[in-house]
Amino acid sequence: MIVLEQLKNKIIGSSLNFQEACEIAVRDLRSNFKDYHWVGIYKVEGGNLRLTAWDGSEPTEHVLIPIGRGICGLAASKGSTIIVHDVNHDPRYLQCFLSTQSEIVVPILSKGKVIGEIDIDSNKSSAFNDQDKNFLEDLALILAEVWERNTE
Ligand code: SME
């Protein structure tokens, strides 16, 4: 996929740190995918997820989410991707924006441990499918590489 290749080149092919890589990723994702209305990356901090980079038309009040809470917290505790096709019918969903209809949360794993996650909200219901999941999981691997490069 061209967007992933371009992002990969930008992120891996330079000496960006994790924070800079996250900022580029959220911006590029939002600008390249019309149904990605709000894109954020959270970092694990103790027992919480802290918002570290985001792009969208408005900020979220959920800048610190306890692991285990909401779809974000659930994906972090399970260590696997969660797609919610209709947030209005999912009691686990933690509301940020009235306009959001569907959501995908993709954990970023380093050495089997969740170190962060990509969270995307869409104003369209069922906006995310397996193609989005695969592509975003590839991106999560790239971000994990940058994370490891910075922490080793
Ligand atoms: N909806 C998320 C909370 C984060 S906001 O979407 C930015 C959740 O259910 O965990």
Q: Could you walk me through the main structural features you see in this protein, from its secondary elements to its overall organization?
A:
The chain has 152 residues and is of the alpha+beta class. Helices cover 38% and strands 27% of the residues. It is built from four helices and six strands, in the order ααβββαβββα. It has helices at residues 2-12, 18-32, 70-78, 130-151, and strands at residues 38-45, 48-55, 64-66, 82-84, 102-110, 113-122. A six-stranded antiparallel sheet has the order 3-2-1-6-5-4. Methionine sulfoxide binds at residues 40, 60, 62, 65, 70-73, 93-94, 96, 103, 119, 121.
Brief overview:
This protein is of the alpha+beta class and 152 residues long. 38% of the residues lie in helices and 27% in strands. It has one domain: GAF domain (Beta-Lactamase).
